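Case study 2.
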Amino acid sequence: MRPPESFIGQPIRCLQTMLRVLAEYDESYLPMIPDGIYGPETMAAVTHFQRKHGLPATGVTNQTTWEAIVAEYEPALVSQGPSQLLEVLLNPGQTILGGETNPLLYIVQSMLIVMAQFYGSIGTPSLSGRLDGPTADALSSFQHLSGLPMSGYLNKMTWKHLALQYPLAIDLMNRSADK
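Prediction:
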């Protein structure tokens, strides 16, 4: 999908893109291929939208229709687009050591629990928010698999590798669930 900036000066293509996202989100809308031409397909999709929303079914996109489409488009785009990224912040040089508690450890432990299902050498940590023995062991195993020093502690380099490997483990989990 094109970024919104690419539709400046292209209101028809913008309208068609919004209608397309709506159709991908809700099959009751008419599918639309953005071509920048307000032809019969666009007019039919607009008319369908207007009927569905109790607006005068003219096929013409007036301000009221435009605002109604935008209002439907925004939540549909969130649903169709990629998930919001979570940026985890560790201070420069920060290391979470054995025995420490930190809210980030809940995320790390959850990630390690998922990875333990696919990598037999990673043990399953507890979900405690504390860098306890099982968590340190799981981190050490993960660090070994990633070619990192096996400290059992959480630092930025270990976090980076966890963040890179976790989506792969989730993909494996989803693929095995689909079978």
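Residues 156-178 form the longest helix (23 residues).
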